Amino acid sequence: MSRDATDALQFDGDETIVVQLADKVEDGTRCYSDGTDVCIAGECMKVGCDLRVGSNKNTDACGVCGGNGSSCQSRYFWSLESISACSKSCGGGFKRAVAVCRSVGADESVVEDSYCDTNGRPEKTLMPCNTHPCTTKWITGEWNVCSASCGGGSRTRSVFCAEENGNETIKLADHKCSGTHKPRTQESCNTVSCPMWETDKWSEVRVHAILHESETRCARVHARRHSVLHVMYMYICVCLL
């Protein structure tokens, strides 16, 4: 095409834009950057993957020109990839997984699913995870209130064997923690002596009798003297208050 060749584009209205086209390219120049078609004698000609003009052969998913995709099964494989967290942190759990196609090699890079055999593709499934054994340990509760405030009492607490699985604590039989000593469940408390009342000796009390003649009476007392009964008349004056 000559350099002075022009083409006109008509737009709405009275304006006309004139566009200068490029010179004719060399034969063999690709028509598009991402295809195999080439320009020949100013026309875009179809070229197959076998580099023959007019060929309709295409490269299959395995990268084989004119292939049907069956040759790449030995070079690619399905791999289960987790898409969720494991249900347990130990003792064997499960997580959801999906199949992805990977290439055989050191890097095992992910490729398009079409490279792998679609008939052998695993469905979304569960895959095992964290199969290592869980670690058991003794769990101790808070001490209860002491049975006495002083003088010696006792208090108790709960102690049980358990395994911790993430945020979950699972209670087990005591023999599961037999490898470690079980903490005590009871102990003494408030052993200090209790306060008590103490008394001193009675003090001597002296009674001062105030005698009044008008407020007295007499009492007759019998007394024994030298095993001989003598009747003695004794008058004891008692203060009548």
From TrEMBL:
Gene Ontology BP terms: extracellular matrix organization; integrin-mediated signaling pathway; proteolysis
Gene3D superfamilies cross-referenced by the UniProt entry: Thrombospondin type-1 (TSP1) repeat (2.20.100.10)
GO MF term set: metalloendopeptidase activity
Domain ADAMTS/ADAMTS-like cysteine-rich: 15-72
Gene Ontology terms: cellular component: extracellular matrix; extracellular region
Main subcellular localisation: secreted
Record protein name field: A disintegrin and metalloproteinase with thrombospondin motifs 20
Species annotation: Harpegnathos saltator (Jerdon's jumping ant)
